Amino acid sequence: MPIRVAALYHFTTFDDCPAIKARLAALCCSLGIKGLLLIAREGINGTIAGGDSAIDAVLAEIRGLPGCADIAVKFSRAATMPFHRMKVRIKPEIVTMGQPDLDPVKDAGRYVTAQDWNALIADPDTIVIDTRNDYEVAVGTFAGAINPGTQSFADFPEWFRANSEALRSEGRKVAMFCTGGIRCEKATAFVRAQGVDDVYHLEGGILKYLETVPEAESLWQGECFVFDQRGTVVHGLAQGTHLICHACRRPVSETDRASPLYEEGVSCPACHGERSDAQRAGYRERHRQQQRAVAQGQDHIGATHRDGKALANAPLLP
Fold first, then answer.
1. Considering only Cβ atoms within 10 Å of each terminal Cβ, which end of the chain, N or C, has fewer?
2. What is the pLDDT of residue 316?
3. Do the domains 104-221 and 3-90 match in fold?
């Protein structure tokens, strides 16, 4: 496993995003690093892969950026390079909520460790909110959590405003969670900006909880969708029973795979009606080329960047 994969995000304030982009792009390319880094005024988010010394050099550069000295990084290994190219992009937000004026650095809720999470959400005075999309929640969630029923993270502000009166009960706490931590961190900043002060979020997200909390003590129910080739994970981060649909990126259960609407690499029951015959034909050809490349031990250069990122480690994707 010679390739080191580093997944990271950090909310801070960048005043000169173009200069940061230029420095990181030049360094990554000179060291043979591949992956994707998103830069915004609110911070940095992304996943990169390369040799150990090259990754160390890039992380040293990132830790030298304003406010990034203590950035948390999640590492994994890969047998081959999981990305096809290196991209550094400037975005309005590092995770899209449609609220670019939020300041998660100053206004995010209080972290709660995985070890302390059970006590918080078991408290009858705590309102627990799952900030993920509805198709993620359907696969698994914490007992008693509210499902906002959103299709994307950008839908969360509208849902909260519509339900804010019910969520403002005096004396009650609000606890929020997501897959890897980035969405709930920003969601707590939004909720606090709406006037709710007693707000908490799960540090490291569901993945940290499943990694560290024994199954016998767990309040998690079901599996956790992770946006990558594993589909879902369970306690101990072992692979779950769901796969990922390469057409729509949604989870596919064992029941879904028995449906006549499911075709590996082409469609699933959730997206079959959303795609045309021509689109499915394109997906079918892409899948055929990918399978051929695997059989020949080659990279499939036509794979999308998001597919490449998923092969590495994507717990921080929105």
1. N
2. 40
3. no
- Out of 3.40.250.10, 1.20.1050.10, 3.90.550.10, 3.40.50.280, the CATH code matching 104-221 is 3.40.250.10
| DSSP per residue, 142-182 | ETT-B----SSGGGHHHHHHHHTTTT--TT-EEEEE-SSSH
Q: Quick check: is 178 catalytic? A: yes
Angle 55-295-310 (CA atoms, 0-180°, nearest 5)?
40
Closest CA to 265 of 249, 276, 241, 277: 249
Do the Cβ atoms of 86 and 54 come closer than 8 Å? no
Q: At what angle do helices 156-163 and 182-193 cross, to 10 degrees?
A: 40
Spatial distance between the Cα atoms of 250 and 135, rounded to a whole number of angstroms: 7
Residue 229, burial from CB neighbour count under 10 angstroms (0-12, 13-18, 19+): middle
Residue 143: closest CA among 221, 253, 52, 77: 221
How many angstroms separate the first and last alpha carbons of the chain?
27
Instruction: With H, G, I as helix, E, B as strand and everything else as coil, classify residue 34.
Output: strand
| pTM over 0.85, yes/no | no
The residue among 264, 244, 256, 263 whose CA lies nearest residue 314 is 244
Question: CATH classification of 3-90 is 3.30.70.100, yes or no?
Answer: yes
Burial class (CB in 10 A: 0-12, 13-18, 19+), 19: exposed
124, 171 contact by CB (below 8 A):
no
- The full set of domain ranges for the chain reads 3-90, 104-221
pLDDT tens digits, one per residue of 38-62: 999 999 999 899 999 999 999 999 9
